[in-house]
């Protein structure tokens, strides 16, 4: 029963992330909101919301600032992890669409394994290499629609997408010791708030660049409240009942739902080659997750 509850939580978090990506794409294409502004606003407000939840235990909340070494690591996580993973993901959506951005970011474990192989000086097994090859072929199929000589998406979108996958790998690896020492809420909360500070250097929150109306505010609430703060808390709850590996594998719901919602909301049409590519990436990453 507990495992079932955990599965529901993990899949719900992945579904909220997928919905957030679609909402972000609507803001970009229909209302002229820029990815730069959305990221800076999303991180600051979500960070404030998460940190406010932890105000009852203020000592725990400020504990990462007490040791210089840990504070430096927190800054690295905030800038190169939290900010960069959000910024590159939404820039990919801005340059292409939510389904492409989600599927290419989902190749992040490929770079985690690559880092592990270099750090440990241990070449991956043949089985791991096979799934890595399947992942690359799947992404190529999605990006090119089967026409290798001419990518279906722009080089800019592909570049941002690869950057989002690499930053996701950093996001997954770098803060592990901090999370074990201080817990998830203060590290992720401060990571969002500090990363949002960097985002405001890139694009200040007060320079919206578009008119705010009821529809825009509702979509912003979806991205900030449901797609960031709530999704994160739900995913954390799932870890009470599931191993981190199983919980991460279940996030395969995200690219599937993002593709499905793109068909409904934007009337996207996927070729057979793209669908095979989607399934290849999701299936191979699920197998690779067992190695992480």
From TrEMBL:
Superkingdom to which the source organism belongs: Bacteria
List the Pfam families hit by this protein, alphabetically: EamA
Query: Which controlled-vocabulary keywords does the entry list?
Result: Cell membrane, Membrane, Transmembrane, Transmembrane helix
What GO CC terms are in its UniProt record? Answer: plasma membrane
The residue ranges of the EamA domain are 5-142, 157-287
The keyword Phosphoprotein belongs to this UniProt entry's keyword annotation: no
UniProt keyword 4Fe-4S, yes or no: no
Which InterPro entries did the record assign? AA-Vitamin_Transporters, EamA_dom, EmrE-like
Q: What is its main location?
A: membrane
Topology in the lipid bilayer: Multi-pass membrane protein
UniProt feature coiled coil, ranges: none
Q: Which residues cross the membrane?
A: 7-28, 34-53, 74-92, 98-118, 130-148, 154-173, 185-206, 212-234, 246-266, 272-288
Q: Where in the cell is it found?
A: Cell membrane
The family annotation for this protein states: Belongs to the EamA transporter family.
Q: Tell me what this protein is called.
A: EamA domain-containing protein
Q: What organism does this protein naturally occur in?
A: Enterococcus casseliflavus EC20
